[in-house]
UniProtKB/TrEMBL annotation:
Origin species: Ferrimicrobium acidiphilum
Any one Pfam family match given in the protein's UniProt record, by short name: ECH_1
PANTHER family per record: ENOYL-COA HYDRATASE, MITOCHONDRIAL, ENOYL-COA HYDRATASE-RELATED
Protein name per the record: Enoyl-CoA hydratase/isomerase family protein
Family, as annotated: Belongs to the enoyl-CoA hydratase/isomerase family.
Amino acid sequence: MVFLSGDRPQVRATGADAKGSRELVSVSKEEGLIRIGLNRPDKRNALSLELVSQLKTTIETHRHEPSVLLISSTTPNMFIAGADIAELSARGEEEAFRAINVELFNAIAAWRWPSIAAIDGPALGGGLECALACDLRVASPRARFAQPELGLGILAGAGGNWRLPDLVGIGWARRMLYLGEMIDAVQAHAIGLVDRLAEDPIVAAIEWSVQIRRQPWRALEITKLALATGGRASSGLIDVLGQAILFESQEKRERMQSFLERRQSFAH
């Protein structure tokens, strides 16, 4: 399947919204790629309970399928404008302790293979935290990033307080969290929040997914696990164990044999 610039995933049933009027999450699949599209354009994909529930269900449904995960919006010039403030204002202590968004973003972060956020438009609050949960972020010039939670009397408690400083450093994290400072795509790229700038981030993300999908799935999975656990902190034990598993794989043997045969042909 080939996706052209501006193509959007076709909606497939994942559960109706609260009014039963439409799907809030779309899914499009090809070999080795699962594209998830957020489909709440009237609220700029604000994270309502129903949208979070549908997105988490979709992640759980496909989490054992070897594939790159691509999260984007079905609507151009849009990513996630943040939480649904009308819902959020009515929540209390009990809802906070349920950690609904934390569980969703942790599920995205725990995707066994690489994940990519394609960001076209504002990624604010929970929208930025969703992007932070992905391994890679591709953004258009229209993207904007901010953690404005403190201005609403709450915390960026679904990843902003720990994933943001891990990615951009404590200095920039303080500015974005304490001041609610909004940065554009160019600045986000300069500080390492965004990995790539592209006029059409979905097309660029798909291009990256093609490169990623050339790698062995098991090696990708173990590399992601090693990065997540920190090789130095564990004295490289994850790397040693993973390497032992991969050394016994048939794919390793075939790829290395192919390499040796190519090198031999070049020598002649």
